[in-house]
Amino acid sequence: MHERITRSLCAAGVLIPVIERVAGLSVLLTQRSADLKHHAGQVSFPGGRMEEHDADVVQTALREMAVGVTRREAFRGVRDRTRSESVGSFVTALLQAEELGVPLSHALKDIAAEVRRDRAQQVRRQAAKASSKVALVVTTTMVPGALILMMAGLVLANIDTIQGLFE
Known about the structure:
Helices cover about 65% and strands about 10% of the residues. It is mainly α.
């Protein structure tokens, strides 16, 4: 039974687009064309069967999505609307991967590594700024505390002399 199911499977890719609306999050579904040989008229996620020229199933899903604008235009629109440096570099990397024919999974791994490097650098910069703040806090609390302890030690060590002054 398991062997029969495995032989009938083919590589495919779908997207599960989540859209934010006033009422909350919703999932975008498509209705398959009534002219199709298989699953005609069914409601489904955007995507489909992987073809030979698809680098991976992610590219298959994006190719099959076809919503009226090219993928390049859609990605550029996202980049322009968000005006985020991270999103901009993400979209640029995706577009370059597509131009060069690099599988999208490789591009996403490279993007993730770059985002991690950027975040690590950002954390190091924040840590460098924090060290001077920590030094200031330590100085303003430790120095007076140390002075109080030294003065208390002096007073206790010389208590007899101090009492002789007031007799």
